[in-house]
Amino acid sequence: MPHPLLSELAAMLPASSLLTDPEKLAPRLVDARKRLHGQALGMALPASTEQAAQIIARCHAHGVAVVPQAGNTSLVGGATPMSGNALILGCDRLNTIRHVDPLGYTLTAEAGCVLDDLKQAAEAADRLFPLWLGSSGSARLGGLIGSNAGGMQVQRYGNMRELRLGIEAVLPDGQVFRGLHALRKRNAGYDLKQLFIGAEGTLGFVTAATLRLFPAESGHATALVAMESAEQVLDLFAQTKTALGEVLTAYEMINGAALGLMAKHFPSIAQPFETTPAYAVLIALSGADNDTALKERLMESLLATGYYDAVIAQDVDQSKALWGLREHIPAAQNRQGPSIKHDLALPISAIATFIDAAAEALQRELPFAQPVIFGHVGDGNLHYNLGLPAGADLVDQERKANSLLFELVARHGGDISAEHGIGRLRIAAADAGHDPVERALMRQIKAVFDPGSLFNPGVLL
Ligand SMILES: Cc1cc2nc3c(=O)[nH]c(=O)nc-3n(C[C@H](O)[C@H](O)[C@H](O)COP(=O)(O)OP(=O)(O)OC[C@H]3O[C@@H](n4cnc5c(N)ncnc54)[C@H](O)[C@@H]3O)c2cc1C
């Protein structure tokens, strides 16, 4: 006997918009890291805001939980339903780019548009949508907003919060919040649309958003620089930021252990240094100048800093290879074996002392764990992962590592989540480490939007 909600939805929706077949549902019940294996009544795929509102109103009437899911690439289990009394609400069919306004530098799109498609639509209008993640081919606008995604170019262009202007969303009772404007300035009291960004699907279902665009870039330059210490990484960052200003688009750090894993598991991606350095830094410039001019600026600024052990990509293929070294690290780590993953936020000036303190503490408490450190260091964001020997008890080691590292992060003025969010996997850490007043206010806000706690229960709060 199907759940009465499913019978009602089956009468409302075309057959292809309601998934209940266990085989089709299966990939939607597992998170990207394969840590969670969930359950749900089924999955609905609305094709319009009105349809989404009708589905959500029916869920509200039946007291069925709603789990918004977009590309399902969340690294904290934010889009995985864990209750048999939940409906997954997918964005796949909300995939229209509604409007591109090159004059106003905006693009309005529905929540199911894939990031790569948004970027292409902007490019077709000679504009740039700069968000760029390792998951750009799968992540969708609804999830990018739900998780306030960051990525490689936050250094220059900001994260999702800084890149969108308006939002349209369906609230947990089925009402539509119509905040889909393209206004850079709107001073009209509480800025409610901000609440949906990074809310991890707990306050409503985003159906569309208006995004900021930028001038298309005419040129690029990429360099990889060998460094002896984390102090040098930060020193070079400060010097290049001062010298290059806004053309500095990305500043990514890779430690020697990560380079070692790349050499082992992706030997076809050439490494330019004779011996593996303690750290390498990937620097990217982009802007209105052409490639040659930007390469010259990059070379001049590196020469002025005194860090000479560097390669500057001479063409697009070389640039892609250097980026490949950075982008394939998570895959290399997966090939190597089990690992504990962290997405830490730190004040930039505290990064080197944090790395030293963490190495010392790990040597004492978890000597077999290998720190594989990489990430958006120019944004104060370290992916601080720990490689474990095959067969290690991941859950037990993770508990120990988290308690040790999160305490150090707090002591250095940082946070346990820079860009991946809290999801299901970081709730205990957020409750333990975040300001209790902040957590209590969030619960009160949640109660205003969703008094029955039907939207993504068990995520974020
Ligand atoms: C290989 C790889 C690389 C990655 N690199 C980065 C990176 O560099 N930077 C970064 O920030 N993240 C990164 N991520 C994490 C992930 O891709 C991002 O969090 C992304 O924004 C999630 O988008 P999604 O469409 O997959 O959303 P989902 O995983 O489907 O959902 C993410 C969250 O948003 C909510 N949500 C989904 N749709 C809606 C909606 N319509 N309305 C309201 N809430 C919604 C979900 O409930 C969930 O809580 C990476 C992930 C992978 C697998």
TrEMBL record:
Family matches, as Gene3D superfamilies: 3.30.465.10, 3.30.70.2190, 3.30.70.2740, Uridine Diphospho-n-acetylenolpyruvylglucosamine Reductase, domain 2 (3.30.43.10), Vanillyl-alcohol Oxidase, Chain A, domain 4 (1.10.45.10)
Pfam families, alphabetized: FAD-oxidase_C, FAD_binding_4
One BP annotation, GO: respiratory electron transport chain
GO molecular function: catalytic activity; FAD binding
Keyword terms: FAD, Flavoprotein
Domain FAD-binding PCMH-type per the UniProt entry, residue ranges: 36-216
InterPro entries according to UniProt: FAD-bd_oxidored_4_C, FAD-bd_PCMH, FAD-bd_PCMH-like_sf, FAD-bd_PCMH_sub1, FAD-bd_PCMH_sub2, FAD-linked_Oxase-like_C, FAD-oxidored/transferase_4, Oxid_FAD_bind_N
Organism superkingdom: Bacteria
Record keyword Flavoprotein present: yes
PANTHER family according to UniProt: BLL6224 PROTEIN, D-2-HYDROXYGLUTARATE DEHYDROGENASE, MITOCHONDRIAL
Family to which the UniProt record says this protein belongs: Belongs to the FAD-binding oxidoreductase/transferase type 4 family.
Protein name (database record): FAD-binding oxidoreductase
Originating species: Chitinimonas arctica
